[in-house]
Amino acid sequence: MVPGRTNASARPLPARGPSPGPEAPAGRSADRRIILVVAAIQIAIGLGFYAVFGHVVAHMRDGVGLAAGTIGLVLGTRLLIQYTLLLPVGALTDALGAPRAGTLACVIRAGGFGLLGTADGIAGLAAAAVLLGVGGALYHPAAQSLVAGLSPARRPGGYATYLISGHVSAVIGPPAGLVLLAGGGFPVLAAAAAAAWGIAAALFLLLPAGPRVPGAPEPRTLARSLAAVGRDRRFLRFAVVVAPSTLLATATTTVVPLKGFGSGWATVFFCAAAAVIAAVQPWCATGGRAGSPRVVRAGLLLSGAGYLALVPLDGTGLTGGDAARVAGLLTAAVLSGLGAGLLQPSIFQVVARHAPPGRVGAYLGTSSFLAGMVAFAGGLAVGALFDAGSAGAAAALTGLAVLALLAACARPQTTP
Hints:
Blueprint: H1 28-53, H2 56-63, H3 68-96, H4 98-118, H5 122-148, H6 155-184, H7 186-204, H8 222-230, H9 233-241, H10 245-250, H11 252-258, H12 263-285, H13 293-310, H14 323-354, H15 360-387, H16 390-409
Helix pairs in contact: 1-6, 1-7, 3-5, 3-8, 3-15, 4-5, 4-7, 5-15, 6-7, 6-12, 6-14, 11-12, 12-14, 13-14, 13-16, 15-16
């Protein structure tokens, strides 16, 4: 499909015009400043997050002794808290301002990573998951609202920079995590992550709070803001169709280690996928590609294909000399990276172009909330199936692929 054209099966959501977002200073210099600061924040938080989450499953399995289902419950708790709170917090970001919300998010997540490094049982891990979830709920609408507030001409490039910087740190993070694990163990790794999120909190303070945007909701009218999103039937249909995107993007952190791949090979997978996500962003940012129906469907199908590629693989005892299994792992990583790399900017562009002024956070929060509910339920199901043995693991991976196929067949409507 040529961007800007529609057909009967993929009619566009009505364009609302460019959304200035909660903080939208005029001028190219202001745009450049926002892009640079957000990129620096993404690098800092990405290093902290991916250094830990590339190895947290192995830590909970081998260091704490949790079963796969319990690991899925802990990780799912973070997602449940984060994405449940996104429904009100997205709208709250519109009222508070993205820099304030982002600073608070980073402080809370720093505390979560600090607790994660000291927890030695399910209670401490669950508390850490709650803090990480609350911080994530605040962070994502704040950072993305800043990018959505860029001028329309710079917004695609700004979001590409946002994703590239985050995934460059996703490439560096897991190997850096391995170094810290070797040098001091998981507590040292988690403390370093907490410090990285503290740096990000300081970076948010470099951004001015800015004037309120006309139409942005006051805290006492947040319910009205959410109700306005609820009346937007076309947007809600799009959000429901792409709701599996978060599950498809995050389930790899669970299924790859549980398929028997050790920390080293899991690191290879995550780094390769992150590199592909970053590499595809310049293509998505040009020609109005991100957000077109074909790109959204391709992202869903490629994500599903990545899980199918993992079905026959077993990482137990894998060495570099086993070319077939290494090639299979890299193929799955590339497919997963391509899928996420196409989906993430497309979903963002649909929200940014469709949301009315002052409601970007509410729209982002609603879309992410729906995606998080799917991710939570799917994560629990995946963990339970892996506990059932090899047949259950194959069923879990196949189920993820089928879910992606069903979402692609639903033909999501998007903006032109």
